[in-house]
Structure formats: structure tokens, C-alpha cells
Amino acid sequence: MKRCLNTSQQPKLADMAGSLSQVLTSLVSTITDPEVISSYTSDWTGRFTGHADAVVRPESTEQVVASIRACALAGAKIQIQGGNTGLVGGSVPPAKSDHEVCLISTKSLTAILDLDEISGHITVGAGATLGQVQELVRANGWDFAVDLAARDSATIGGLVATNAGGIRVCAFGMTRRSVVGIEMVLADGQVLSNLSSPLKDNTGYAVVDIAIGAEGTLGIITAVKLKLIRPVVETTLHLIPAQTMNEALKMLAEVQDSGHQLLAAEYVDAVTMQLILEHANLRPLWKEIPKLTLLFEVAGKNVNLNFPHDALGSSEIAEKRNYWQYREVASDTWTALGKVHKLDVSVAVSDVAEFELSLQNLLSTFKGVETFGSFGHLADGNLHIEVVGPAIDNFAVDYAVLKLVAEFNGSISAEHGIGRAKREYLSLTRPALDIEIGKQIKSVFDPTKTTSRQGTDGEKGTGFGMPLVKEFVEKYGGSIEIDSWEKDTHPDSHGTEIKISLKKAA
Predict the structure, then answer these.
(1) Residue where a domain stops, chosen among 169, 202, 227
(2) CA 468, CA 472: separation in Å to the nearest integer?
(3) Is 441 within a domain?
């Protein structure tokens, strides 16, 4: 007897809670309580919220595979989430969907899979936080090149998915430079992995590496192999007041030409510093707040550089940690004001001063803007722009700032990705061909996209069902044969014949 599966009759997630539970209970921690789910459906900024019918927290790659396949069979959409520390709404599902939504959190994928102290590699689950990795490798004489303020909540999978930068890009580059291998689960449950590949391998395309910076659009990153560095033991942190951005850039150039390794070059503007002093319980560094407060960290102990006489400096760990607070609390301080337009962008370092002036002119006259400020990574040309007002659901100011970035041939995202916030503006700075190639790559990685031809009665196919059938049959020691006859060549006997052979039970 032949049977045609009607996809419209497949049970939805809400209707198959029992069967979903039966499949996943022993394998996956599943949350269905709406109150608990709500903590997963609002992002760190509070600007983006969504809806999910279930939250799944797998603890292994196998559980991720099981979760994906169960959700696929239920006809549910999948949202991937790591530490949920992003700023662009990429970690939460939309508020409305035509399908039930299952959010897969990677927070429980925290296993430390391998630490190779000879080669300086560590393989970790995608849910391990940056802080956890740092603590472990530093205890073993190594360090991880990437560092950022959200180290205790940002996950390794999230860092890789967004190609995060942080405070040490000027010395060690973006996350991409520290990734040796990736394990990733595709939309149909297949696992791509190059975790065991050698460091030096030039055989064809680095297929899995395409996931770096893809923001989860190609699959779920479950594990990452990272390249470590030897720690810079002694450093000197300088805090320098500057009255213009040109002055700040001149001092930056002098440090870069000094022969000392520059590990970090940060700035905080006067508006942001005023908020920090008001809300973060930190004492003023100088009698008057300068237009810019610079933080330059260089390798070496008690390094003296040609800075103004009122510059501050220290090589003492406790004092450096205290100084770094003035930069690391900046984003949280703005968030304390409520829902803020947060834009992380980049321009050429040589254009930073001119861009900042243009930004001031734009925002100071923009209708509805109450206040604004910035801070960021000076040596990378990466500015974190904070804008209070207009209404948080009014994206006019976002567009205006990003359009200005495009005029300077910059990037509309330097660290946090595109997400929901910037999806419509990608064409401002990326060529049409570039975007089209990205769509083609995603299509190749997505086995659930329509790949099969229509059925004899015009039914739509996805190509998803039969691979699953084949896998299940073969697991039980059976085989499957498929014959098909085209209507053009067999008008009276066209169709498809499927023969499934199973071993007789003992």
C-alpha cells in the first residue's frame, strides 16, 4: 500500500508535547513553562523581544541532533541562542511566527573536550564562557587572545558565530584568527566537523570555517577548537586625557611607533564618562572630565611613554583592574538609562576624527535625540555609539547613523553582527553580489530548503523526509530501493515505487 504524507497534517509542537517529551526527556532538558521561557526571549538590551513555545538545553552534540530532528518533524522553527549578550536582536526569536518556535540554547554545552598543552590548542563546547576558558588556560600557562567586558556571560559559540573582536584586536585580531576547527550541526541533523584536522591543511575549501561570523544562519555550532597564545605577563596601563580626537590619534601613532607591543587602545568620550561617574560609583580621574579618556595598554612593566604630565599609569594588577572599570562599565551604564539605540560600527582609523565630527553634527540636530555618546576601540576604528531617544521602535536614527558609516566606506557592524536590528541595512555597505553569494552559501548548507521536484499531483517537496527514512531503515539493518518514472516518458504508469526490506525478527 502506498501512502502520501500530507505535511499539513503533521502535528504541531503544541500538540505533540507528549511525544516530544517521550523523545527528548532522557536526552535533553526541555523547558515549556512560559515564565521560565520569558527569560530567554528578551535580549540583553531589552529592545528586542520574541516568543518561543519551548526551550531546549542540550548537553551534547547528539542531543542537539535529536532536538533539531524532533523540531523538524514537529514543523517547528528553530532559534539558536548562546549567552544572549548581543546587541542586535540576533539571539531571540521574532514576536510572531506562522509556526511554533523551539529555542535551542547552547549554554549547557560546556564540556572542556581537550587541552593540548604541546600545540597550544583547546577544544571546548560552544556554551563555555570566555571567562571559563580564560581561567582554565591561564592556570596551564596559556592565554586566549580574545578578551571583552562580557567575558563571564559571552559564550565561545557566540564569539565564533559573530566573529567577536573585543579589546585586543589591535594585537591579536578578531576571533577568526584564533579558531582552528569547528563542529556544527546542520538543519537536517547532519554534523560537519574539522575538530580533529591538523593545523596545516590546504585540501580544498575550508567549508566549516564559513560558519565564523555567520550568526548561526548555517547551523548550530556545538564545539570549537581554539588556538592559544602565551600570556603577556607584564603590562603597563596608561590613562590619558585628550581634548580632541586628532590629539588621541596622534598619541596612538606615537605608541605604535615606540617599539612597544600595543595590547589595547580604548577611548571613552566625556558624555559616557559623566554617566560612569554618576552611576558606577567610580571616582573622577581628573578635576575636569576631558573630551576623551584614553586607555593604552602595552607589553612590559613600568613602561614610560611620552604622554602629558597628568596621564596616569600602572603595572600593578589591582590598580590596572580598577582603571579598566572605567571602560568596561561603559555599555552597562548607558543601558541603565533604559532602552538605548546601540550601534557598533567601524571606519578606517584615519577617518575616525572626521567621522566623529560628522556624527556629532548629525545627532545634535536629529529630531527626538535626547543625548548621545560613544566609546570604543580606537586602534580598530570601532565606535560603540549610544543614543537615547527617539522611541526605541523608531529606527530612523539607526538608519541615519549607518548611512553615515556607509558614506565613510565603513562597516555597519564591527562586533555584534547583523541580527534583526541591521538586517535591512546590509546593502548599505555590502555589494549586491556579495549578498547574493551569501544567500547561495546558506542554501547549500540548508538541507531543508526545497531540493526535490514536485509530486505527481503538484505536491511540494523538500528533500528532507527520505534521508530520514533511509537512515532509520539502515539503522535497523534494512535497505531501501527507489524507482521513478517520469510522466513525459510513462504517461500511463508514471510515479515512484519505494521498496523497503527489513530483517525478520528473531
Answers:
(1) 227
(2) 6
(3) no
In sequence order, what E strands does 66-111 have? Answer: 77-81, 101-105
* Alpha-carbon torsion (456, 459, 464, 468), positive or negative: negative
Please tell me the total count of domains within the chain: 5
- For residue 179 the three cell numbers come to 579558531
Phi, then psi, of 392 in degrees rounded to 5: -65, -25
Q: Per-residue pLDDT tens, the chain, 506 aa: give them.
A: 232 333 333 445 445 555 555 555 556 888 888 899 999 998 887 888 999 988 999 999 999 998 998 888 777 889 999 999 888 889 999 988 888 888 999 999 999 999 999 999 999 999 999 999 999 999 999 999 999 989 999 999 999 999 999 999 999 999 999 999 999 999 889 999 999 878 888 888 888 889 999 999 999 999 999 999 999 999 999 999 999 999 999 999 999 999 999 999 999 999 999 999 999 989 999 999 999 999 999 999 999 998 999 999 999 999 999 999 999 999 999 999 988 999 999 999 999 999 999 999 999 999 999 999 999 999 999 999 999 999 988 999 999 999 999 999 999 999 889 998 899 999 999 999 999 998 888 888 876 665 555 555 665 555 556 666 776 677 667 887 777 777 777 777 777 788 888 877 66
Looking up cell 525478527 gives: 505
431 preceded by a cis bond (ω within 30 of 0): no
DSSP H or E run through 303: none
Report d(CA 114, CA 126) in Å as an integer.
Answer: 13
The CATH number that applies at residue 343 is 3.30.70.2740
Instruction: Give the structural domain span for 40.
Output: 7-105
Q: Please check whether residues 213 and 129 belong to one and the same domain.
A: yes
Residues 143 and 197 placed together within one structural domain of the fold: yes
Residues 223, 64: contact at Cβ < 8 Å?
A: no
Identify any residues that bridge with 447 across adjacent strands, giving them in sequence order. none
| Residue 216 and residue 266 in one domain | no
Give the list of residues 6+ apart from residue 189 with CB closer than 8 angstroms, or none. 65, 66, 68, 69, 72
**Cβ of 12: how many Cβ atoms within 10 Å?**
13
- 245, 157: one domain: no
Residue at 407 is within a domain:
yes
**Cα gap 481→350, rounded to integer Å:** 64
Element (H, E) at 407: helix 396-407
328 and 351 together in one domain: no
- Same domain, yes or no, for 61 and 96? yes
The dihedrals phi and psi of 484, each to the nearest 5 degrees, come to -135, 140
> Tell me, what DSSP letter sits at residue 44?
T
162 and 211 both lie in a single domain: yes
Picking from 186, 202, 227, the residue at the C-terminal end of a domain is 227
